[in-house]
Amino acid sequence: MGWIKNIYQFYYQGFKQMTLGKTLWVIILVKLFIMFAVFRIFFFKDFLGNNFKTDQERSIHVIEEITN
Q1: Tens of pLDDT along 43-68?
Q2: How far is the CA of 11 from the CAs of 2, 5, 24, 52, 66, in angstroms?
Q3: What integer pLDDT is reported at residue 18 of this predicted model?
Q4: Whole-model pTM above 0.70?
Q5: What is the rounded distance in angstroms from the CA atom of residue 15 to the CA atom of residue 48?
Q6: d(Cα 49, Cα 58) in Å, to the nearest integer?
Q7: DSSP label at 17?
């Protein structure tokens, strides 16, 4: 159990002493938010939900697309 504490302390101290790294992490998190939240809203519409009424119809369509 002591090795888990050592690993935690290693990363805790490393992130605590960062200066430029904190800014880079903020940039990374903002980019991830844009990619997964904003792009999904504008570019990835709910095709299956809009074009098929039941789960069975959706599953048949997906199976046909995968196997063809």
Answers
A1: 888 888 888 999 999 999 999 999 98
A2: 15, 10, 16, 48, 43
A3: 84
A4: no
A5: 43
A6: 8
A7: T
